[in-house]
């Protein structure tokens, strides 16, 4: 393969140090990295270190006569297979969204005709600010790729979304864009369920659960990143629709089943939704009122359809691979094996949702994969995104898309 070249624009965020590791890893893969530092970035990482790791001159000034003589900034903007902005600060994103060009980094970003990927990193309140949301929506509409931010503790002492994704994740994102073979599931049709369901009691009340949809959404995204055509059927969640995925929004288990059946045929189905097992037998069209002296109403529940079992036992369009989750409290492996047999699915990802594990609604997950009669495979505790990537790796191997 011809030498691939990345233009890395390092923004002025504390996380800029992570770029050093990224440069090293890109170079290990034989990818040339040319770096541009903003003025603020130069305060956080030393241009000398960046140049030493990249093995190339570092660029930082728009009006540098020597730079212009060696390489015009337009050439700098165009001589790359990919432009990566990391960390992409709120300020850099705002400049990009508005086409400002008042320094070398922003000028290059306006002058480039190459694919651009941004990795935002900032304080969580800045990330949630309507101005940043607006800028980001505009960048996505302009065709800019966005990776992250991750959630967690910030250098500023606050917690939330705003961390630069780890160098390993940045590396993968870059490779996926540079190497065509890095999309091993291209054109594979996949279905993912995610989030809770809401079962109405009356027009204003419902039964639901604490599922955040994070795991299912991460799986949908990881499949799409690997090139699959993904339909995500999601119950009501605050987690945003993953980019590059067709998301169908539903409320009840019955709606979820209907949407899943409508998405068939698929090669792979992954049921990560926390579907309510029961629903109120009837939900009156009018709000149930408190009548003076009357006893509290009694809810009669009826069983909901089992989406996983329905897909796994579909008479005409059973997906080649059906994967379910088993949320259990205690005696994980035995219960998960029983569940696998009961539902008729191929794989079960079992997790312990006992109080205190923080799995439900949390950012991390500890999985026991039961892929057949053989021994179970215990995964370490991982971020839900990492669980999703591992699962996709396993799928790639199982479907023979790439030799193990
Ligand atoms: N599931 C489903 N439809 C349902 C219930 C569950 O598709 N009506 C799927 C979930 O998405 C998950 C798996 O079945 O992949 C296991 O769900 P879980 O709630 O752990 O098991 P249950 O079937 O509810 O069994 P139990 O409550 O007895 O543990």
The fourth-level CATH homologous superfamily of the largest domain is: CoaB-like
Name the CATH class of the largest domain. Alpha Beta
Spatial gap, N to C terminus: 22 Å
**Looking across the biggest beta sheet, what order are the strands in?**
13-12-9-14-17-18-20-21
Task: Give the overall shape.
Answer: elongated
Contiguous runs where pLDDT drops below 50 for at least 5 residues: none
Count of DSSP-assigned helices: 15
Helix content: 25-40%
Structural class by secondary-structure content: alpha/beta
CATH-defined architecture of the largest domain: 3-Layer(aba) Sandwich
The value of Rg in angstroms is 24 Å
Quaternary status? single chain
E-strand count: 22
Q: Note the beta-strand portion.
A: 15-25%
Number of domains: 2
Mean pLDDT over the residues: 91
Q: Would you tell me which CATH topology of the largest domain applies?
A: Rossmann fold
Small molecules (ligands, ions, cofactors) in the structure: cytidine-5'-triphosphate
Please outline the major beta sheet: 8 strands, mixed
Key words describing this protein structure:
404 residues; alpha/beta; Rossmann fold; 2 domains; eight-stranded mixed sheet; binds cytidine-5'-triphosphate
Would you give an account of this structure?
By secondary structure, the chain is α/β, with parallel strands linked by helices. Helices cover 34% and strands 22% of the residues. Strand 7 and strand 8 form a beta hairpin. The mean pLDDT is 91. It has 2 domains: 174 residues, Flavin prenyltransferase-like (Rossmann fold); 210 residues, CoaB-like (Rossmann fold, 3-Layer(aba) Sandwich), CATH 3.40.50. The chain has an 8-stranded mixed beta sheet with strand order 13-12-9-14-17-18-20-21, sandwiched between helices. It contains 15 helices and 22 strands. Helix 1 packs across helix 10, helix 6 crosses helix 9 and helix 11 packs across helix 15. The site of cytidine-5'-triphosphate (CTP) has 15 residues, from helix 13 and strand 17.
């Amino acid at each position: 393969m011809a030498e691939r070249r990345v233009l890395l624009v390092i923004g002025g965020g504390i996380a800029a140090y992570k770029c050093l590791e990224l440069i090293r890893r890109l170079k290990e893969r034989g990818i040339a990295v040319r770096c541009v530092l903003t003025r603020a970035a130069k305060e956080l990482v030393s241009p000398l270190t960046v140049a030493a790791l990249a093995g190339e001159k570092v660029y930082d000034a728009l009006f540098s006569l020597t730079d212009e003589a060696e390489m015009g900034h337009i050439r700098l903007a165009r001589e790359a297979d990919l432009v990566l902005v990391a960390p992409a600060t709120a300020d850099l994103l705002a400049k990009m969204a508005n086409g400002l060009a008042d320094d070398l980094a922003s000028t290059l970003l306006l002058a480039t005709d190459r694919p651009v990927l941004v990795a935002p990193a900032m304080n969580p309140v800045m990330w949630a600010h309507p101005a940043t949301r607006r800028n980001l929506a505009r960048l996505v509409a302009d065709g800019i790729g966005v990776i992250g931010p991750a959630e967690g503790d910030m250098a500023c002492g606050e917690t939330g979304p705003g961390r630069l994704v780890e160098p390993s994740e940045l590396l993968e994102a870059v490779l996926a864009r540079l190497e065509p073979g890095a999309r091993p599931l291209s054109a594979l049709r996949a279905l993912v369920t995610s989030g809770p369901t809401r079962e109405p009691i009356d027009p204003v009340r419902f039964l639901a659960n604490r599922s955040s949809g994070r795991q299912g959404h991460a799986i949908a995204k990881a499949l799409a990143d690997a090139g699959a055509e993904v339909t995500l059927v999601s119950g009501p969640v605050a987690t945003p629709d993953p980019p590059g995925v067709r998301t169908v929004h539903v409320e009840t288990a019955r709606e979820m089943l209907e949407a899943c059946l409508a998405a068939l045929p698929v090669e792979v189905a992954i049921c990560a939704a926390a579907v309510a097992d029961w629903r109120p037998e009837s939900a009156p069209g009018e709000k149930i009122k408190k009548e003076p002296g009357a006893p509290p109403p009694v809810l009669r529940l009826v069983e909901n359809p089992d989406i996983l079992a329905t897909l796994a036992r579909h008479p005409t369009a059973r997906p080649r691979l059906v994967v379910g989750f088993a949320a259990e409290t205690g005696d994980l492996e035995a219960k998960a094996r029983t569940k696998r047999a009961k539902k008729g699915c191929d794989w079960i990802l079992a997790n312990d949702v006992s109080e205190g594990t923080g799995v439900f609604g949390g950012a991390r997950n500890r999985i026991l994969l039961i892929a057949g009669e053989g021994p179970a495979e215990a995964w370490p505790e991982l971020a839900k995104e990492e669980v999703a990537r591992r699962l996709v790796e396993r799928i790639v191997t199982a479907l023979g898309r790439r030799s193990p």
